[in-house]
Every structure is written in C-alpha cells, then in structure tokens.
Specification:
Length: 474
C-alpha cells in the first residue's frame, strides 16, 4: 500500500488491510505519527504523546478486533494506565493514570493502537478547545477559527486525515459541536449505551457519554458494536439493539417522519447561511421520500439554566477532589478562571437547587418524549453560528459575563438530548461561502440509534463528504 492512500480509508478499511497483511500495524502507526508530526504544529490537536506505549501494544500482540492495527488517540479526559492525562488543566500537567477506564479498555480490546491524547478544554467545559495549559486547537478548514469543543482535538485530527476515527465524549454537545465545526461525522449515543466507569457512575448527572468522531458512518456504527454494553458499576442500561449497529449501515431507513426547525431552541433567528442549509437539507430529505414538516418542541424550562447548574456542581466536585489530592486550596495557577467561577457558583447553591435543576431536566425530557411520539427524527442546526474565531470564548477573562449569552446564540440546542438521553448526530452536509463546515443535527427516539445510522448512511451516499478535505490536510 502506498502511504499516500492512508487517508482514503476509514478505520474498518485500514483494519482490513492489516488483516489481509497488505500493511502492518507498525506501518500504520508510523504513518499516523508522521502525519501528526507534520500537521500538529499548525493544529495543536494531539497534545499528549505516548508513541512508545502504542509500539509496546503492537509488540505484545494486538487483540483480534474490528479495528486491529488502526492508530487512535483518546480524548485527554480519559484514563489509560501508565500514560499522562491532563484533563486540560495546569494542575494535572504531570498526572499519570493509575488505571485504565472501562471505555479505554474496550478501545484496546477492539485492537486500536493508542499513541496519544487529543486536546480538550479544561474538564471539557467549553464548546471550543483553547485550554491555558495546551493552547488553542485550530480548525483545519481555517486556522483562525476554533475546531469546536470539547472534543476539538479529536475532530481536527480526523478532519485533517491524521486519523480516520478518534475518541470523543459529549456532555452538552461535545461530540456534535466539533463534528460540525470540522466537517466530520459525530454520533452521541443513547444514555448508558457506552460505559463511563469505573471512576464515574454518571457523568454530569447522566448527561455525558463517550463515543467517537469519524469520517465514515460505518466506523461509528462498528465502534458502537465494540463499545456498548453495561459494566459492573452501571446504574442503568440502554435498551438492547435489535441487531448489530453495523448492520444498520446501508439498510433502507424507510419513509421517516421528520420534523425540522431553522431557528434556535429559543425561537430566535440564526445565521442566515445555516438556516438556509437546514431548509436545503429538509428539501433533500423530502426528495428521498421522507415525510418532512416544520415544527419544533416547546420546552417547559430553559436548557441553558439547567445545564449550567448541573455542570457547575460537577465542576465543584472536580475542584474539591483536586484540593483533597493536593492537601491545599487551589488557586488560579491551578485552574482557569471559568472553572473556579463555576465551582464558586456551585458552592453558593444548595442541594435543593441541584435537585430543582435535575427536575427541570426530567421535565424537558418528558416534553421531548411527547414531541417524538409523532415523529421519528428531528432535524435542527448543530451550531447556530459558524465556528467561532479563536479567542472569542476566553476562559481566563476577568469579565466572564459575555460567555453565557454567546453560548446561548452559538449552541442552544445540543444539550437538550443530553438531558433526555436520546441519541443525536451531526452530519457535515453543507459549507458556508467562506468554506467553513455546517453540521446538521438529527435526533432520534431514546434507544433508537438504528434509525439514525440508517438515515446517516443514506445521506452519506446521497451527499458524500469523505473526499471533501480542508486546506490543512495530510
């Protein structure tokens, strides 16, 4: 295989080459490392490197899995024993993981060779990836813009064809937001579909989950087969799939009932190019034979207030655990201003306030369940503005008051499906006139990744994105 062809394959395709001995796992790793070395000075996507760990994986013998020999990076929030994990925070710059998380163990069992960690904002708090510790991760479509967040390093690496697939996680949109910003595919699974233990029972009150971003729909589906299922510490489990998720790719989705909106969650007008892209996608879906109508759910509570309260409490716990480990109070040399402000907000709130926010999340979930009783899929914009410029969201600013209003305009709708636990995905179906990707978000009923994967596969065939590559690309 000529290595110039590496970027033409998805992860399943590369694994097939290894299985047929057309290329070795070591050669694929060397190629991924060479691409990282060449592009990362521009992108800053892979911020922790442990190439030797990956080489030792290969020398020890890789498990026989669907991705055997495929190079891979974990997001810099998850643990892999003996490797550095910083959580994007200065205080953890030298932290070495004492054990491996369940999800990372399943990535290893799938045969992936893990040679580093992708950039995340501090504790994954922002929809942009610009930590003080590691610096900004730039968008391969335009280096002046953010790659999104919090899985911004993963999405940038995949978009630039450093890797065909990379670990990502999503507590309020952190798979779908960078997938939209970087022009790749990102599926947030149903709550409890994939494991998050053993260090967490629930992430962000049940909002957070882990999966991947990828170039192909196939990689996401095959990876979901490799990852899903409960672990001993799971507080609950997702409904079992009818068949392997991989078998949904290419399957006829049938005539789906699809509702759509071209305004924000709050009914506000959005960027005109993005609104036009939503309407164009609705026409495309209608042309494919689906029943399409314009309507949106009515929400009983403000999702921005709900997620702010839940995330603040969890951030406060993260700061407290750091203080317990250090044996001292943390300072602004340890954590960014936004992290400390969020933790301070949590300390001023009560347990009753937290329970009230959880109740509002459940009320939003119920209203969405009622809305989905009459439809199969809901289409809306993943982002309501083009990818932000580097520096627009400053987590070290003295005045943080502008962050919430900007988030309300930028990502008003992604967190809804973290609250409800429903699967949702971003597909790169449009681009702005300036060349930045526009992601379309599709949400399905609870437990119904199958319908989303069938629809994604249909749209991937109808409007392919694989060969559309950014200016910064291996």
């Amino acid at each position: 295989m000529a290595f110039k062809e590496y970027g033409n394959y998805d992860g399943v395709g590369l694994a097939e080459l290894v299985r047929s001995k057309q290329v070795s796992a070591g050669e694929l790793l060397d190629e991924a490392i060479a691409r990282t070395d060449a592009l990362d000075p521009k992108l800053n996507a892979v911020v922790v490197r442990h190439d030797d760990h990956a080489r030792k994986q290969i020398e020890a013998g890789l498990p026989d899995g669907p991705f055997t020999g495929v190079p891979f990076v974990l997001k810099d929030l998850d643990l892999l024993a003996g490797t550095r994990t910083t959580f994007g925070a200065s205080v953890y710059r030298d932290f070495v993981a004492p054990h491996t998380g369940t999800l990372a163990s399943r990535f290893v069992a799938a045969g992936l060779t893990i040679y580093g960690k992708s950039a995340s904002p501090e504790f994954g708090l922002m929809p942009t990836t610009e930590s003080r510790l590691h610096g900004p991760t730039r968008n391969p479509w335009n280096l002046d813009h953010s790659s999104g967040g919090s899985s911004g390093g993963a999405a940038a690496a995949v978009a630039a064809r450093i890797l065909p697939v990379a670990h990502a996680s999503d507590g309020g949109g952190s798979i779908r937001i960078p997938a939209s910003a970087c022009g790749v595919f990102g599926l947030k699974p149903t709550r409890a579909r994939n494991p998050i233990g053993p260090d967490r029972g629930e992430g962000w009150g049940g909002f957070a989950c882990g999966h991947v971003v990828s170039i192909s729909v196939r990689d996401s589906a095959v990876m979901l087969d490799a990852l899903h299922g409960p672990e001993p510490t799971s507080p609950y489990v997702a409904p079992p799939p009818e068949r392997p998720f991989a078998q949904e790719v290419g399957r006829d989705p049938g005539r789906l009932r699809i509702a759509f909106t071209d305004v924000s969650t709050y009914g506000d007008a959005i960027d005109p190019e993005i609104a036009a892209a939503v309407r164009d996608t609705a026409k495309l879906l209608e042309g494919l034979g689906h029943h399409v109508e314009q309507r949106a759910p009515k929400l009983p509570a403000d999702p921005a207030d709900v997620i702010a309260a839940i995330v603040a409490s969890n951030t406060g716990l993260s700061v407290r655990l750091a203080e317990q480990a250090l044996g001292r109070k943390v300072t602004d040399q340890d954590f960014e201003a936004l992290t400390l402000a969020s933790a301070a907000n949590a300390s001023r709130a009560s347990g009753v306030d937290y329970c009230a926010a959880q109740l509002q999340a459940y009320q939003i979930s119920r209203s969405l369940a009622e809305f989905f009783a009459g439809i199969d899929v809901f289409l809306s914009p993943t982002l309501c503005l083009p990818p932000l410029k580097i520096g627009e969201l400053d987590t070290m600013a003295r005045d943080l008051s502008g962050i919430s209003p900007l988030l309300r305009r930028y990502v008003p709708g992604t967190s809804l499906f973290n609250m409800s636990g429903q699967p949702a995905m971003s597909l790169p179906l449009a681009w702005t006139t300036s060349g930045l990707p526009i992601g379309m978000m599709f949400a399905g009923r609870f437990g119904d990744e199958a319908t989303l994967l069938r629809l994604a596969s249909q749209l991937e065939q109808e409007r392919p994105w694989k060969d559309r590559r950014p200016p910064v690309c291996a």
